[in-house]
Structures are given as C-alpha cells and as structure tokens.
C-alpha cells in the first residue's frame, strides 16, 4: 500500500450490496466514486449509484471483476487514486495489491505481504503459533506423505478434520470419524482441493464437536497501532457457510472478550497488518479459544459491529488508507446493545438451496408501515424493485441488520423486519430465516456450528 497518499476519487472493484455500501460512505466523506461492471450488471444498482461507471468485460467474473488489468485500466482512465475491493473477487489477491503498488494506486486494505501470510492456512498457523496465538491441536507441516498424515491423525485422536491448506468457503474440508475412513477421506479432500485451488496440501485438526464460531474485528493503521472492535458470533452456518450473525457473542465474560481481542490484535500485528481484518476463532464449551484463520478484508457481517460500536468501518478503512491514524484508541471504543444480521439469498430452501433467478417485481422494506424504528433497522441491498437477478454471481441480494437494547429485543425486531420485507418475483430464503430467528433454541442462544443440522426437522 502507498502510505499517506491522499485521494479524492475511489473505484469500487466489486458489485452488489457491498459496492453500494462503500459508495454510500465514500460519498458522505466527499469522495468521488467509480463503479465497475460486467455486461450482466450494466444496469445494476451499484452502477446507478456511483458518480461514474466503467465496463470491465463480459458476464463471467474471470473476464470482468477478477480481471486485474481491466480494473487497473478503469482506475487510470477515471483518475481514481484508490481502489476499494469489497469482499470476495480481488479482495484477498496479493498479486492484485502488488500490481496496484506498481501503478501507484492506493489499495484500501492490507499490504500484499500480510495477505500472503494469511492466504495459506498451514503457513498462517505456523506463524500464529510463533506469535503465541492458541491453535486447535493438529498438524500443519510440509510432509504430506500419506503414512505421515495418517500417523498425525492417529496421534491427534478422532474425529479429526481434514482441511485444504489453500482452502476457503468450506471447500476441501472433511470430518474423519475413525482411522479406517482416513485414506478415503484424504483422497476425496485432495481431489476437491486440487479442483478448487490447484493445490493438494492438507492440514489436520482435532474436530471440535460443538464449538462456536466467534470472530474478532481488528483494525490496524500504518503507524503500527491496532485495536479490536469486539466480536461477532457466526455459529449459525449451513455447510460451513454463515447464515445469521450477531454481535456481541452471547455469554462472553469481559475477561474472555479482552483475551480474545488482544490475541486477535497480536495476530494482526505479527504480520504487519494494516486496515480492517477479522481473526476467526473456534470457542469451545469450556471457554478455550483457538485461532482458525484471518480474513484480510472487510467481512460481509461487518454491519453488526457497526451497530454495537456506532463506528463506520468503511470510513475507518478509507481514513487508514489515506495514511491517517486509527480514529479511536482501544479505551475509547464501547459496545452498546445487540445486533443481528440475516443474509437474504436468492435461493430455494425447498430445493436444497438452489440459487434462484428472475425479475424482482418488488423488493421493499416499508419501515414506517411496519412500525419499525429506522435507527434500529438497516437494509444493505444491492438490488431494488425492477432489477434482474442473474445466475452469474453470488446469490446474496441484501443483508437485513437490526439493533436492540438487548438480544431479546433485537431478535424481536429481526422477526418483525423479516416479516415486513416484501420480495416478489424471485424466491428467497426469507421464510427459512424467519423460522431460524423464532426458534426457541436460537432465542435461548444455544449456539454452536451444528445448530442448523441439529434442528433441521423444525427449520425446513
Ligand atoms: P473456510 O476457510 O473454508 O471457510 P474455516 O477454516 O474458516 O474454512 O472453517 C469453516 C467452518 O468450519 C468454521 O466456521 C467451523 O464451523 C468449522 N470448523 C473449522 N475447523 C473446525 C474444527 N477444528 N473443529 C470443528 N469445526 C471446525
């Protein structure tokens, strides 16, 4: 990253809700905005909302949003001094960041070296071990010989989890219940990992049977200072993918919150981190926590952190990218109330969550009609009534975010807001989210990563 560089125009190398989200804050800060788009998105909401828009290429992501040269050319053509990558696409691509450095364009995110340090799960774990960050018992070594891996799994004790070192998005991951199943699982994982990431290296972890997924939001500036903006609980997952997130994590003691927060900042500083990052931990029933991975970008679920802290994380990102120091010190950050985020997907829960497409005849959240307080309900959307939902990209349409004085109140607001969201023309997971939000076990905060699996019968 070019440090201390002022810029007055930012290009958003993304689409959908996150592009719209970044445009909103950039505009409030007085920055000019440039959208980029593929042919499938020529009339998309983010294109309509930006000051300028540049076509990248055809619909396929590889020829548009993932095309490094096309994105850089768009920035040069429009005179954008900085690029915000959003999440997904090029946001964690070290080559992209290097190319921007060479072109003299500010990357709103960490240096390429920090992305590389966390990009490989095995290397990241070795590094975190050295920094004194607790790890799940396991093996993340270079020796990938079948017999050696089996020996390590036996020593860890079953069940174990095989994970692709290069993995992400829940791919290349398998639970192995016993030694007898190890070889078959190893071969399956290698195949999957080769296909998805072009890499076969595996790591092995003790499989925790009822952990929670608790992640810490961290922020670092280029002066070397770092803070944590508390944690999020993202235990409600389907096939290792998040569905509903909340902040703070229920039942955390102040002491555990501080311990995890400090471990997360240590993890970030170990790799010379700059900007917004998330350190993901597994939290066991006995309050032991273990580093899982660090996401070197703004997360989908960042709004729940904004709701409980009152901070605008995109503003923080842009300020840090301009070379400013962190807007607040640790002791100036406070946590108030409780927040939830529900991800609204164009998908059909009745048909194994198959992505849905079509013409959005209506996509409206009428807050006043439903008696909802606009300070407490936020819809981060990439679409509006009349838009087309194509099959080219991630099917997430929007995120519904709510805030309440406490968890019970926030959950009640989430239920009412979900009911008030009027979507027609495209099938969504809304009814599934409603069942989830009103489930007694969820209301009681009986959270762990197998929540959906355990309650399947009542949720579908
Ligand atoms: P990915 O990068 O593919 O998303 P992660 O390493 O972040 O993979 O893990 C995704 C999810 O898998 C976690 O949120 C958690 O639910 C589950 N998981 C990962 N590691 C373990 C483990 N050792 N034991 C139990 N569950 C795990």
UniProtKB/TrEMBL annotation:
Keyword Transit peptide: yes
Reaction it catalyzes: N(6)-biotinyl-L-lysyl-[protein] + hydrogencarbonate + ATP = N(6)-carboxybiotinyl-L-lysyl-[protein] + ADP + phosphate + H(+)
Amino-acid biosynthesis keyword on record: no
Lineage of origin: Bacteria, Pseudomonadati, Pseudomonadota, Gammaproteobacteria, Oceanospirillales
Quaternary structure note: Acetyl-CoA carboxylase is a heterohexamer of biotin carboxyl carrier protein, biotin carboxylase and the two subunits of carboxyl transferase in a 2:2 complex.
Pathway(s) where this gene product acts: Lipid metabolism; malonyl-CoA biosynthesis; malonyl-CoA from acetyl-CoA: step 1/1
Protein name stated in the entry: Biotin carboxylase
The entry's keywords: ATP-binding, Biotin, Ligase, Nucleotide-binding, Transit peptide
Extent of the signal sequence: none
Highest taxon in the source lineage: Bacteria
Organism (species): Pistricoccus aurantiacus
GO MF term list: ATP binding; biotin carboxylase activity; metal ion binding
The protein's required cofactors: biotin
Sequence ranges assigned to domain Biotin carboxylation in this UniProt record: 6-457
Occurrences of domain ATP-grasp (ranges): 125-322
Residues of the full protein shown: 1 to 460 of 677
Summary of the function given for this chain in its UniProt record: This protein is a component of the acetyl coenzyme A carboxylase complex; first, biotin carboxylase catalyzes the carboxylation of the carrier protein and then the transcarboxylase transfers the carboxyl group to form malonyl-CoA.
């Amino acid at each position: 990253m070019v440090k201390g560089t002022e810029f007055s125009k930012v290009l958003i190398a993304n689409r959908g809700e996150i592009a719209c989200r970044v445009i909103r804050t950039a505009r409030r800060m007085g920055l000019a905005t440039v959208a980029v788009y593929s042919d499938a998105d020529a009339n998309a909401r983010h294109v309509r909302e930006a000051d300028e828009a540049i076509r990248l290429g055809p619909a396929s992501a590889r020829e548009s949003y993932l095309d490094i040269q096309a994105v850089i050319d768009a920035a040069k053509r429009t005179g954008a001094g900085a690029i915000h990558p959003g999440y997904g696409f090029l946001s964690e691509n070290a080559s992209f960041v290097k190319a921007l450095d060479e072109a003299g364009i500010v990357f709103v995110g960490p240096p390429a070296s920090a992305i590389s340090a966390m990009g490989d799960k095995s290397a990241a774990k070795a590094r975190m071990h050295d920094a004194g960050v607790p790890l799940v018992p396991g093996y993340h070594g270079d020796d990938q010989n079948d017999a050696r891996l089996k020996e390590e799994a036996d020593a860890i004790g079953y069940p174990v989890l095989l994970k692709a070192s290069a993995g992400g998005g829940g791919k290349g991951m398998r639970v192995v219940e016993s030694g007898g199943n190890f070889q078959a699982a190893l071969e399956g994982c290698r195949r999957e990992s080769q296909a998805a990431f072009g890499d076969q290296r595996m790591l092995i972890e003790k499989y925790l049977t009822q952990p929670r997924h608790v992640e810490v939001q961290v922020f670092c500036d280029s002066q070397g200072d770092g803070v944590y903006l508390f944690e999020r609980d993202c235990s409600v997952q389907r096939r290792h993918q998040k569905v509903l997130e909340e902040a703070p994590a229920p039942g955390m003691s102040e002491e555990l919150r501080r311990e995890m927060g400090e471990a997360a900042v240590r993890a970030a500083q170990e790799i010379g981190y700059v900007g917004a990052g998330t350190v993901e931990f597994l939290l066991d029933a006995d309050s032991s926590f273990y580093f899982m991975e660090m996401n070197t970008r703004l997360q989908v679920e960042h709004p729940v952190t904004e709701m409980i802290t009152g901070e605008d994380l995109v503003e923080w990102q842009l300020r840090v990218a301009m070379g400013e120091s962190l807007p607040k010190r640790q002791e100036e950050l406070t946590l108030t109330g409780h927040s939830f985020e529900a991800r609204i997907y164009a998908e059909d829960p009745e048909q194994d969550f198959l992505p849905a497409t079509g013409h959005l005849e209506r996509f409206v959240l009428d807050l006043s009609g439903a008696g909802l307080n606009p300070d407490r309900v936020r819809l981060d959307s990439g679409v509006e009534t009349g838009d087309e939902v194509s099959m080219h990209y991630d099917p997430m349409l929007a995120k519904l975010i709510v805030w309440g004085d406490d968890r019970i109140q926030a959950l009640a607001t989430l239920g009412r807001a979900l009911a008030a969201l009027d979507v027609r023309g495209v099938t969504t997971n809304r009814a599934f989210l409603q069942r989830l939000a009103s489930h007694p076990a969820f209301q009681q905060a009986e959270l762990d990563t197998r929540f959906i699996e355990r309650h399947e019968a009542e949720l579908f």
